Automatic annotation (TrEMBL):
This is DUF2330 domain-containing protein. It holds the Pfam family DUF2330. It comes from the Bacteria. InterPro entries: DUF2330, UCP026449.
Amino acid sequence: MKLWRIFITLVLTVLAVISFAPIAWAFCGFYVAKADTKLYNQASQVVIARDGDRTVLTMANDYQGDVEDFALVVPVPVVLEQEQVNVGEPQIIERLDSFSAPRLVEYFDSNPCERRFDLLQSEAAPSQTGTRIRESADSLGVTVEERFTVGEYDIVVLSAKESKGLETWLRGNGYRIPRGANQLLKPYIRQKMKFFVAKVNLKEFEASGYQFLRPIQMAYESPRFMLPIRLGMINATTEQDLFVYLLSPQGQAEITNYRTVKIPSNTELPVFIKNEFEDFYKAMFQTSYERENKKVAFLEYAWDMGSCDPCSAQPLNLEELRQAGVFWLNPSTRNNVFITRFHVRYSRDQFPEDLMFQETSNRQLFQGRYILRHPYQGEINCPAGREYKRSLNQRLEREVQTLAKLTRWNIKDIRQKANLPQGRRVRWWRELWQ
């Protein structure tokens, strides 16, 4: 019997440890909402899968208008052949966006009068105009390096001797680009870069059955780890939002020619934000952007793609990663992919250079995470409960102060929405500094 009691004791001890041990996919609280790219009316998205000199670049088209007028001009470091270009599926970018989006999570205070374990942790074929293209190209200093069709896109890869001739060639061959484009083309020509140019093949687009243009993918080898953004400013009437998802087997990617800051994170907010998270995140991002003088890139997420905590979407499986351009995996290897998500809001005057990146071995985890802590609503009759009530008002006031600082919202309106206890004295200097 004595041995039996010892055995039972050991079993209960093991069960107790297991019961209170955090599991890999769980967290204390639950995911509520995410701040994905749908918050923004005009948001470009780019996926870059990079290992060494090998790159797969996926560009989502946030094009609004008649597809007949669509034209994409992207500087690339090398001449691309047809087999290096693919038309991808937009769902893959949506999956990356959902997985890496800043998120709102909820916690609920338990009864302070009950002893509990606190698990919260800090946390082609040649076109009919082919002859005319070759003839005009020679006189303008433009060379057609490659020409083919992939999916619904007719593609040419060009090299050029001078920007005016390149702009003239593009216009003469039906590419509707804005006036003055040659000024932004000049730096790329000086760097001897090529130009990947795409427009929609209307017949193929109609046959595809798609309503929207699909992303274009390019695979190439080059020591240059960069993303050209200046040409995207030609059509811009306002500041542009760009989301870059960098996938690497090494660790975090870094932007080398602009300062990068982490988006404000791990802050506790009033619980009414649950119904206003989109408004909060947009206001918070704009406030942070202005405080940094509109000259920084924001890190919104950095994580090993084999896990997530909390999960706003499940990690991508091997097939989805392959569709996103990850080329270093096979079914027998583990999911060795690290994702870095940058959010860049840029304009021509504040971001005069293209984005330059480098791979690092830094695998430090980061996420944009915002916390709601619901007060305990039950009856409290104990010394610890009375102390909880006193500290609760201080906590609620801190949440109000934090929200006002992050968003520049009116603190009186925040207090009213937060339903702070009436008659509570508010120190006069708090409103002065807010």
